[in-house]
Structure formats: C-alpha cells, structure tokens
Amino acid sequence: MEDAISNYTVFEDAFNEAGVNYNSDLNAYVVEYIISIGFYIISTLRICSCGLCSYAICKFKCMRTRTNYILLNCLICVIAQDLVMAVFHLLSTKITYFSSPNIFSNFLLILYIFQINTFLLYLLLALDWYLSANCNFIFNKYKKAYTFFIGSAYLVSIASVLSFPSANIIIMMVTYFVSALIVAILYIIRFVKIYPPASLKISYALTVSVIYVLFWSPFMVVITTLHIVILYLEIFSFHASTLPYITSIVFLFLGYIAPFFIVIILRKLDKNFKIAYELVFRSTVRKYRPSNPYSDCEYDQYFNDSDVL
C-alpha cells in the first residue's frame, strides 16, 4: 500500500526508478508501517483539536469575528486534508490501485490544493492583523470584502494546481516561502513598532501564523534541497529506509502537528478561546467545571452577550 504521506515528498519517482519492492524489503516495510501508525495518530489529534476549535467559533457569538472566520477556514482545510488522506488509505488496496491507475494522482491534486490553500489562508490571517493595526483606510475597505479574499485563496490554490499539475510541488514550495517571508516581515514590524493595546486584540492571528510557518519550515527546507539534488544532480537512490527519506517524514509530521499546537496555544493567547473551550468541555463532560471568577449563569451570560471584536 502506497503511503499517503509520500504525497508531499519528491521521492515517488526515485522509488520507481530504484525498483523498490516493499514486499521483499523488510526495512522499507517496517518504516512504512511505523509511518502509517504515526500518520493515523497525528491525523486523529488534528481532526479532534481542529474540530473543537471550529465548533467553538461557530457556536458562540463572541467568537464569530472576521479574524476567526479566516482561522475557521484554515481549520476546515486541515480537517478536509486528513479526511481525504483517510479515504485514500481505505481505497488504496492493490485491486483498487491497479484498476484505477489515476487514483493516486487525483488524491494528490486534492491534497496539494488544500495544503497550498492553507498556506495562503495563514498568510491572510497575518495580513488581517497588520491591516487592522496599521491601515485604517484600507482596513475599512478590507472589512467589507474579506470574504472575497478568503474565496480568492481557494480559487488561486485550485487554479494553480489544476493549471500546472506537473509542477504542484514547486507551486507549494513557492507559496510557502513567499508566505513565510511576508509573515516574518510582519512579525518583525509587530515588535519594532509600538502599538496601543486596542490594536493588539487580535495579535494572536499573527502569532499562530508564525507558529504554523515555523513548524513547516524544516520540512520545506529539506524537500526543497532534496528536490534540487534529485532533479539537477540526478541522484535516484533514495529509499524508504534511508536517512533523507526518514528525516523528511519526521519533519513532515512536525508540520502536520502544527494545527494541534495552535489550537492549544490559542487558549493562552486569547481569553475568548479559553472561555469557549471551557464551555464546550463543560457541556460535553458534566463533571467539568471551568476555573473562572463567575458563577455558571454569569459565566454563560458574560460570554454570549460580549460584543464582537
């Protein structure tokens, strides 16, 4: 069974050229088996954490803000990506694979669309903070049309992947590095310039964008380097049990786990997320009691009646 996590590596052609036989190669089989287990564990954590945060944003009035709607789309892309990978694993038996030779390519295109779109949405999340804190005139225009920019991210990712299917990994790398550069510049501006407290209400948007970029940086650097090595130095000896492959998978898992940590860190960065999580847990686990200075009734009223930021 082809491992869905190799969707983001540049080793697929290398494996074909090397003629790797996973049935007879015990080391490769063990590595792929461990990778599959790790993938399912991380996917479960991602779906549960992103589902919790998405539910909190949709459920409570105070959470339905412009910034959180952008974050919600980021989380939806993560969940959709994991579900697509799960479906691929279920369908990628030998019979299905050989009777439908294009199934891998089709799933791969969908995964590239979601991943590129996620990079663009986290970039938009960082720009959302910058515009709200620095550009009053532009920000007033942006507030009325922010849904257009969210939709544009989806359209750009879909159009780029479908228009250049043979260069998807290049598009993903370029999208990441451009997004990472802009996010880094905005983060530097955040600390160089002094902002009033009112401008920092949604500073968590920039923080989570930086976290997401940092978690993905090792993997993107590794696959960019290896992509150059494979294409230009014509080295096709990578193997599922070799160090470059294993290293790239470890870094891929690091990027995959980023949304899980983002959902946890949001509880520390923003009071509304902390309250929302506690209310969600309290409604599902009756014995849970949030630590807050309000009684239960006052607590619910405070949160649901709060003004939208």
From TrEMBL:
UniProt KW keywords: Membrane, Transmembrane, Transmembrane helix
Protein name, as recorded: G-protein coupled receptors family 1 profile domain-containing protein
Superkingdom of origin organism: Eukaryota
Protein species of origin: Dendroctonus ponderosae
Residues that span the membrane, as ranges: 33-58, 70-91, 103-125, 145-164, 170-192, 204-233, 245-266
